[in-house]
Amino acid sequence: MTVALFIPCYIDQLYPKVGIATLELLEKLGCDVVFPLGQTCCGQPMANSGFSGLTNGCNKNFIANFSGFDYIVAPSGSCVLHLKEHLQDDKNPEKAHQIKNSLFELTEFLTDIIKVDTLDARFPFKVGIHNSCHGQRGLNLASMTEKNTPSFSKPEQLLKMVGGIELSYPKRKDECCGFGGTFCVFEEAVSVKMGKDRITEHEANDIDYITAGDSSCLMHLEGILNRKGSPIKTIHIAEILNSSF
Question: Which residues form a coiled coil (predicted)?
Answer without folding.
Answer: none
